[in-house]
Design brief:
Radius of gyration: 19 Å
Number of helices: 7
Largest sheet: none
Structural class: mainly alpha
Number of strands: 0
Strand content: under 5%
Shape: globular
């Protein structure tokens, strides 16, 4: 008996669809974009499964540059090659760049106002909450991870302790724990 065909999921219809989608995505993501990106690409558009998202997000995090920009390049490239990667990148950067420049001019005028400082503190709290909620939402995908749920939780806790409590620089933690996780995964996947 042959295995069932791989489940197809929707994909961008054109380069314009990719550009507009990533522009709208970029305009929603102030600070904690992980929650917004996951909701849009996995839940709403269904261009990726949760597992694909976690794998691509992990790669995007270890590449130089902003995570969401790296992810946009990967998604665009997956569907339309280099043209898709450039369209997604343009969508991520064009309109937000113009808005940031306009906001910089406004901020220069009103930076000393106490209401502005309070609004920025409030936005930081919301972004932290969105990141936490997304982490909890994606937690279920760890059950399918080759390392197993316990080891993934252990590595996550070790990462938190290393960075937040021991104040070890992120690059060292990423290199050591990332390398250890890769070696463990390779050993479990090797025939």
């Amino acid at each position: 008996m042959s295995p069932p065909p791989a489940q197809e999921h929707p994909q961008p219809k054109s380069l314009t669809d990719l550009f507009v989608s990533f522009t709208l995505l970029a305009l929603q993501g102030f600070g904690g974009v992980l929650a917004v990106v996951q909701r849009e690409l996995v839940e709403k558009k269904r261009w990726m499964t949760r597992e694909e998202f976690i794998e691509d997000w992990a790669v995007a995090q270890i590449m130089p540059g902003p995570n969401v920009v790296n992810l946009s390049l990967m998604v665009g490239g997956r569907y339309f090659g280099l043209k898709g990667a450039m369209a997604a990148l343009a969508g991520m950067l064009t309109v937000p760049l113009v808005l940031v420049l306009l906001l910089a001019v406004l901020y220069a005028q009103f930076a000393g106002h106490p209401g502005v400082a309070g609004a920025l503190r409030g936005m930081a709290a919301v972004a932290a909450g969105l990141i936490g909620a997304t982490g909890l939402k994606l937690f279920g995908a760890l059950k399918k991870n080759v390392l197993g749920l316990r080891l993934c939780i252990g590595l996550g806790l070790l990462c938190f302790v290393s960075i937040a409590l021991l104040r070890i620089p992120l690059a060292y933690v990423l290199l050591s724990l990332g390398l250890a996780a890769c070696v463990l995964a390779y050993r479990k996947l090797a025939p």
